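Cross-check.
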Amino acid sequence: MSTIFSLRPVPARWFELLTAREDLTLAVETLARTGAVELETHSETATPLVLPDLRGRLEEYNRLAQRYQRYWPQDELRPSDLPGRPIDTLNHALSRLYAWRDAADTPVRRSEALRGELYELEMLREMLLALGETRLDLALLPGTDQRVLATRLFVLPPRSRIAQLPAAVLNSTVHGKVHDFLLVVGPQAEVDLLEQELTLLKGRPMHIPPWLEAGTAASLQALDRRTDAIAAELGELEARLAGLRQEHQLAEALGDIARLEWFLTHVEALPVSETFAWVTGWTSDLDGAALQQSLTRAKARALLRFPEPPRDKTPPMVFHNPWWAQPFELFARLLGTPAQNEADPSRLLVLIVPLLFGYMFGDVGQGFVLFLAGLLLSRRFPALRLLVPGGLSSMLFGVLFGSVFSREDIIPALWLHPLDQPLLVLGIPLLGGILLLLLGLVLNGIEAWWRGELRWWLELDGALLLTYLSLLALLLTPYAALSALIGLLWYLGGRLHQARGDLRALGSALGRLLEYSMQLIVNTLSFTRVGAFALAHAGLSVAVVGLAEAGGHPLLYAIILLLGNVVIIILEGLVVSIQVTRLVLFEFFIRFLRGEGRRFRPLPAPPQRPKR
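Predicted model, tokenized:
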């Protein structure tokens, strides 16, 4: 009996939290970090939370961020443990940012100027390396008398096509590794006109430093000295900025602002007064221990209680499964969320899904690859946790079928080789499909019992169940026709009873009985695809081994066998996964699962802050 009741999803529990208004953001953040709360406002007397002043001041923060964000800490934010009233917290954080800006603006501007110069020096280095040794005296370039002649160095996109240069302008083109460079000397007016033309070609002038030497090698050495000097000065500036960040406590100020931004994004309205705030909603923490412990650790001044939910509120449903069944909740979520009087099939799927998958994909080696992939990738892609039981089941059936990486000559088959007895391989899933459909019909009856409608189920669906079993039994004995007739009369009598003796209901009842019976038979036959895919997998494995052996060389044999197994694992693994999903959803679930429950949507938590 307890197993049956464990299949029922659990309604989330209503909670109410009374907290000091100064601790509101801290309390909501603490609740969100548990991953076990969904906020839903319920108040008849209090005034909703309205914070237009926060949004206006956050615009000031955004303007500061556009200018200075790259100089702020990004991954070490530490919000205040006791932030206070939201507007006071924001004002205090902004005052720290403005104080930091006033102190850091000069080193920031100097740092940006030096980084711009470094970029120019990298361009210059590229040109000098491409120029090589030359008779051109580079030291003369920055000393040109600009009142008579203008000297300009332009950087251009590679292979730029330049129109004919003015005759009065001397020029030299250098093709660098990434850019093209054009050095020109000529009258000021002519060079200015040339700069306008080159701008259209996405070219731009470069600064010619005054410390260039006569030769290329000497200029490169001077460039290295200047680069080292800039790096040293940048290090000093960064140390100064780091000190200013610590002095003005930017990590805490930015953490407080990030918390407030998250709060305004995810909390639309809460009942508040001058002193207190009232947070209400649903929680999947059914005994409330995790919520209370989290609030205690956060030192939030709050009173938590769990009264009966308001009558006008519909509780979301919570999957309450042990860890080993949680990956299989994915299948039920594809159809929706089971309501309180619907069965949650996740614990049943722990056995059903791996059996279907392993039967169609029976191979020890390929199953081991899927098992490892599930272990390695499940943290990043939680849905791939299903590959772990699927891979183990594939390995089990691989032992039964005697298949290791498509080869059937490494281990003996403990049961059979699929291609040796194809009818038996097709028949076993057919029997399994019958049992699975019967389980779905029984779960439908259990749900009727939960709803208090067991009598109605017995009058109609109970008769359909007897008729289905009778039709199956006809394959074994003709006497089953008698029980089929009993099921027919039972169904018609039940429908007539529900229609209060109206004989007109018998016509529609016969049509529904015929439709439902044919649907069950078609659903039953659909499970033969499990055996068909097992045969296809075995046939494909034989083909891969045959192609490998036809190669005639050990190396070619290994390459073909490797590639063939890769194709089988990726392609057939995907197809088999789709077939398992289809059978579970459209043959099994449709018997009892409607997904009419409300989904529990936990409040998303802000980014995790590092521990101090």
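The longest strand covers residues 13-20. Residues 1-5 have pLDDT under 50 and may be disordered. Passed to J.P. for a second look.
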